Amino acid sequence: MRDALEHRLLVVSNDDSGQLKSEIMQLSNHPIRVIPPDGDVDSALTEIASVIIDSEIGITAGNRLVTLIKTTHPSMPLIWRTTGQEEASEFGRWKPDVVVQGPISKELWGAEVQPVLREHFCPPQLLDALGVICPQILLTTFETESEVSQQFVKASRNTLQPITALLPLTGDKVSGRVLVSTNIELLNTLHIRLFPELEDPGIAELEDIAGEISNQIGGLLKQFLHQYNCNVLSGVPVLLQGKRFSIRQMTEFPSIVTELLIDNEKMYIELSLDRLDVDSFGKQVRVKYERAGSVSFL
After folding, report:
1. Are both 196 and 128 inside the same structural domain?
2. Could you say which of 99, 229, 237, 249 is the most buried, measured as most Cβ atoms within 10 Å of its Cβ?
3. Same domain for 237 and 182
């Protein structure tokens, strides 16, 4: 059975020195496999989540590979790394998702490659919704300002902070889970703001705060998804305590993480999807965001 915990990168290159692999390894901890253009790329794709092609293989071999990948795995992110000046017209009907020039630096990876990986696994509308919903819940429920510092692709299934609330989501078009991960200090701060008369909350009370945040995110996500005719049911939060728990699940997709900065502490809202009907997000919808604590009949 395929191990779904890893997000594997395939690098297609003639570079025996491994320069391109070295560049990528400095920017990503994803497992990387390097094969030449005449290798068995088709078989390798069954274990790969995204592909980087080195332009040194030539435009003819590159076009063949781009066509192979996009016709057999159309949703797979495909990056063409070049030291030249290839134009889009040099590719055939099928084209890479992004062309990056020169060595892949940290800035280039963050600005051009990471957004391609992120949007292939989560529609932009859903990313925007998470960026609105999460700060709103903290402000409405806990009277706490927060800032979305970044949204990124997370390939591993390890929890990010010592306390994690996991809320299952299930539906015919969308299913997966929401994870809220943070530390005890931040949960204690939020508990005090919600219950100022209660001092020295125990770990169970702090876990309840994380669970409540996950419940509210799940509720507002359900209302948001309903506007795209995606009906979702949520379960009961599961609370995890400890660092680097590994959440095993049957999915090929990495998670999308929204990082919030709150009083110099971090909270991570992770959306991990097992199923997503991307066609549902192809229509134009005037999105309405409900407020935390509001009641809607779906």
Report:
1. yes
2. 237
3. yes
- Asked if residue 134 and residue 79 are part of one domain, the reply reads no
Q: Which CATH number belongs to the domain containing residue 161 in this structure?
A: 3.40.1550.10
Among all chains, which residue has been given the structure tokens 């990082």?
259
Q: What gap in Å lies between CA 24 and CA 73, rounded to an integer?
A: 22
What's the domain count of the chain? Answer: 2
Please give the residue range of the domain that contains residue 144: 124-281
Residue of 25, 19, 9 lying closest to 55 (CA atoms): 19
Q: What is the pLDDT along the chain (298 residues), one digit of tens a residue?
A: 222 223 567 888 887 666 777 777 777 666 778 888 888 887 777 656 678 888 888 888 888 888 988 887 776 788 888 877 655 567 888 888 888 887 777 777 777 777 776 556 677 888 889 999 999 999 999 999 999 988 876 756 678 899 999 999 999 888 899 999 999 999 999 999 999 998 889 999 999 999 999 999 999 999 999 888 889 999 999 999 987 677 766 655 667 889 999 989 999 999 988 887 767 776 665 655 566 555 444 4
Residue bearing tokens 């391109």 = 20
Sequence-ordered list of residues with C-beta below 8 angstroms from that of 242, at least 6 positions apart, any chain: 159, 162
Q: In the numeric block, which tokens belong to residue 168? A: 């299952």
Q: Is residue 297 part of a domain?
A: no
Tell which residue, 68, 102, 249, 279, has the closest CA to residue 176: 249
Give the residue from 69, 95, 121 where a domain finishes.
121
* pTM of model > 0.85: no
User: Rounded to an integer, what distance in angstroms lies between the CA atom of residue 47 and that of residue 8?
Assistant: 7
The DSSP element (H or E) to which 265 belongs, if any, is: strand 265-276
Residues 236 and 99 in one domain: no
